[in-house]
């Protein structure tokens, strides 16, 4: 699984113009089943995304299509982790523990 931390690299007023495109892109990733949770970050990131387990190359390719990244308004830092404990409602997400 991954945590993707999005940090803005441009002034907020420039980022604001691209947020509608970014929101549509996020919606698409949720529909495709890759993203599980997203929201506003606090100190270390402007936005946080938690993803399903997948190949790192696939995730990197998807994140590279974010309109904020394409317009050089933000960049991602990705943290990979192996979930060793999972709440019951997430067992279907964490295939490694479901079996």
Automatic annotation (TrEMBL):
It comes from the Bacteria. This is YCII-related domain-containing protein. It comes from Amycolatopsis echigonensis.
């Amino acid at each position: 699984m991954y945590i993707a931390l999005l940090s803005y690299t441009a002034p907020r007023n420039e980022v604001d113009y691209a947020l509608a495109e970014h929101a549509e892109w996020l919606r698409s990733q949720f529909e495709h089943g890759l993203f599980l949770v997203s929201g506003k970050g606090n100190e270390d990131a402007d936005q946080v995304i938690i993803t399903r387990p997948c190949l790192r190359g696939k995730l990197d390719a998807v994140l590279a299509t974010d309109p904020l990244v394409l317009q050089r308004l933000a960049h991602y830092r990705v943290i990979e982790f192996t979930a060793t404990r999972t709440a019951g409602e997430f067992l279907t997400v964490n295939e490694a523990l479901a079996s």
